[in-house]
């Protein structure tokens, strides 16, 4: 149901509960009305994931989707900025680069903020500037206290996704001492199911040695 005043809604849900699906449907509503959508994410990894997901979903309707992060070259970034300004781009997915002063939209209607708690005070002040008169959809699995307080007071509308998708398995987290045999076992188990592995190491200097190992 569409309303006269701009939306400011917080969507809370655990990882894998369908927050991105909600964002996609909201984005479709905006671009179907001839407007632009901006999706703000905290990391380049999440930016690339959303770029792939949104591109696959909106390819059938001919929507134009692009990313804006450090992974794009200067030429690609400048082209994206020009397309945003002229309205030739429907959806842009970006990291903090999306908060730059040089960003100009032709008809921004919806701003989607993924994982709001990962952005600092200065970033949020800039988000407020962009958000004037624009619909805002904030998605998070762990809302910060102030955001939750605003939702509880009714200043921001709150939606909670409490039911997981069918056949979804719960996330398992294990904390233990490092052992090569254990790491090998979990990596092979993930490969056998056709999945991917993200190995986090705490020293940039040792990355190549750890990768080789």
Please name the defining characteristics of this protein.
alpha/beta; seven-stranded parallel beta sheet
Helix-strand sequence: EHEHEHEEHEHEHH
Taking the alpha carbons of the first and last residues, their distance comes to 55 Å
Strand count, sense and barrel status of the largest sheet are: 7 strands, parallel
Radius of gyration: 19 Å
Helix percent band: 25-40%
| Count of helix runs | 7
The stretches of 5 or more residues where confidence is low (pLDDT under 50) are none
Number of strands: 7
Characterization of the model:
It is a single chain. The chain is an alpha/beta fold. Helix content is 38%, strand content 17%. The chain is built from 7 helices and 7 strands; from the N terminus they run βαβαβαββαβαβαα. The chain has helices spanning 19-32, 44-58, 74-86, 121-130, 145-153, 180-192, 207-212, and strands at 8-13, 36-40, 65-68, 91-94, 108-114, 135-140, 157-161. The chain has a 7-stranded parallel sheet, sandwiched between helices.
């Amino acid at each position: 149901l569409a309303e006269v005043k701009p939306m400011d809604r917080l969507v809370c849900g655990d990882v894998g509960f369908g927050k991105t699906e909600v964002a996609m449907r909201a984005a479709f509503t905006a671009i179907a009305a001839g407007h632009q959508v901006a999706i703000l994410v905290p990391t380049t990894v999440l930016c690339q994931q959303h770029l792939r997901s949104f591109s696959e979903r909106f390819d059938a309707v001919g929507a134009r989707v692009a990313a804006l992060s450090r992974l794009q070259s200067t030429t690609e970034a400048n082209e994206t900025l020009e397309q945003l300004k002229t309205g030739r781009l429907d959806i842009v997915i970006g990291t903090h680069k999306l908060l730059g002063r040089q960003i100009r939209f032709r008809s921004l209607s919806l701003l989607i903020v993924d994982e709001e708690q990962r952005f600092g005070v200065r970033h949020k002040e800039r988000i407020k500037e962009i958000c004037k008169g624009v619909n805002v959809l904030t998605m998070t699995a762990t809302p910060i206290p102030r955001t939750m307080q605003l939702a509880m007071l009714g200043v921001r509308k709150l939606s909670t996704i409490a039911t997981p998708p069918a056949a979804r398995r719960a996330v398992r987290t294990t904390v233990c001492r490092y052992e090569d045999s254990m790491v090998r076992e979990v990596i092979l188990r993930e490969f056998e199911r056709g999945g991917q592995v993200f190995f986090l190491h705490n020293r940039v200097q040792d990355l190549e040695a750890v990768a080789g190992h």
